[in-house]
Amino acid sequence: MRIGELAALVGVTTRTVRHYHHLGLLPEPTRLGNGYREYRLRDAVELARVRRLTELGLSLDEVRDVLADDRGRELREVLEELDADLARQQEAIGAQRDRLAALLAAGEPDPDAAVSPDLAAVLRGLPVAGSPSAALDRDMLALIDTGAAPAERAAFTALLQPLADPDIAARLPDLYARLDDLADADPTDPRVPVLATDLADCLPAELLAAMRDPRGRTWLDELSRELGPAQAAVFRHLSGGTP
């Protein structure tokens, strides 16, 4: 049979057959005198095997390994690994659906609400109330949450959890308002070190230590570009740097 007939028999395209030839997944039959390949039933059987394995979710590299060792043992190992991968994917999809359900149950979803559930709980306790500083704070926290790996995200939100404490939450509106008032102030404004001290008293010790870690000072440089000179000076005081 010709390549088109082979492809139709197995339910793939001729382009797929040629691709499998190129990858070495399917032996290429010798061309006849007229230049055409002549495929036999055994070629259809091999092509059907490749299709079945790819439909199970194996990559083409994995299919090649399986076909190179036809004893079945390696195929079982590959299928077990595939099953474990699918289980992890299923768990991740379940977590994503739980997050979507929570967002949909909240009424009109906000784009910034699509953060991890732990951070969402922290952000609910951070008042914005028209404060530019508070809004920037939320944006920065959401950015860090989005770019972090799962383990890093969990550690990061653990640092923030104490901010949800009612006593701390009650102090935040005043602190944000004072930071807003420094938007156009000079870095030498006497309110700068006072506000830095009050912020340090409010922040969890672990979070403050992370902010003062020299290895993480890049965050201060980036944040300073979004703040007024006096506001940036507050965070330099807070991080233990030079005002």
Q: How would you sum up this structure, described in words?
A:
- By secondary structure, the chain is mainly α.
- The chain has three domains: 3-68, Multidrug-efflux Transporter Regulator, Chain: A, Domain 2; 70-109; 111-238, no CATH class.
- Helix content is 67%, strand content 0%.
- The protein has 13 helices and no strands.
- The protein has helices at 3-10, 14-23, 41-55, 60-68, 73-105, 117-124, 132-147, 150-160, 166-181, 191-202, 205-211, 218-224, 229-238.
- Helix 1 (3-10) crosses helix 3 (41-55) and helix 10 packs across helix 13 (229-238).
- The protein is elongated, with a radius of gyration of 30 Å.
Put simply, the count of helices is 13
Class based on secondary structure composition and strand pairing: mainly alpha
Write down the domain tally. 3
Kindly provide the radius of gyration, computed on alpha-carbon positions and rounded to a whole number of angstroms: 30 Å
How much of the sequence lies in strands comes to: under 5%
Order of helices and strands: HHHHHHHHHHHHH
Poorly predicted residue ranges: none
Arithmetic mean pLDDT: 80
Pfam family, one: MerR_1
Keywords: Coiled coil, DNA-binding
InterPro entries: DNA-bd_dom_put_sf, MerR-type_HTH_dom, MerR_fam
Coiled coil: 72-99
Write the topology of this structure.
Blueprint: H1 3-10, H2 14-23, H3 41-55, H4 60-68, H5 73-105, H6 117-124, H7 132-147, H8 150-160, H9 166-181, H10 191-202, H11 205-211, H12 218-224, H13 229-238
GO molecular function: DNA binding; DNA-binding transcription factor activity
InterPro entries: DNA-bd_dom_put_sf (IPR009061), MerR-type_HTH_dom (IPR000551), MerR_fam (IPR047057)
Keywords: Coiled coil, DNA-binding
